[in-house]
Design brief:
This protein has two helices and seven strands. The chain is mainly beta. The longest helix has 9 residues.
């Protein structure tokens, strides 16, 4: 469902659906519930998975900001959790080697985010 929202071109969406079995850990997308125009994803860049933030404008354009960059180890499975205040949330992700959901060598990274950003 989120893949179709991200990829507005029907051809790209069909390709993504057909390729989903090979992209199991490549496509990791989570929305910030306090600001659904923001989403976080992990994708492969130069052989390493990096976390990015994408922000959708009212015109429908996407702005990309790096959360991690130039990493030497994978950054995977981003997840957003609401904070105690109305203006904060926390971005969690796994950093390390991820072989299977029962077999991984990772650390949990936590970063506070402002929902308005």
């Amino acid at each position: 469902m989120y893949l179709l929202w991200l990829y507005t071109s029907v051809n790209k969406a069909q390709y993504m659906i057909q390729s989903i079995t090979t992209l199991i850990i490549s496509i990791e997308i989570v929305f910030n519930k306090k600001n659904p125009s923001n989403l976080f994803l992990s994708r492969e860049i130069d052989g390493i998975f990096e976390v990015e933030k994408k922000t959708r404008s009212e015109e429908g354009d996407w702005k990309t900001e790096t959360v991690t960059s130039n990493s030497t180890i994978d950054n995977l499975r981003p997840y957003v959790v609401s904070g105690n205040s109305d203006s904060s949330s926390f971005l969690f992700w796994m950093q390390g080697k991820y072989y299977h959901y029962t077999n991984f060598e990772t650390n949990l990274i936590i970063k506070e985010i402002d929902y308005q950003q």
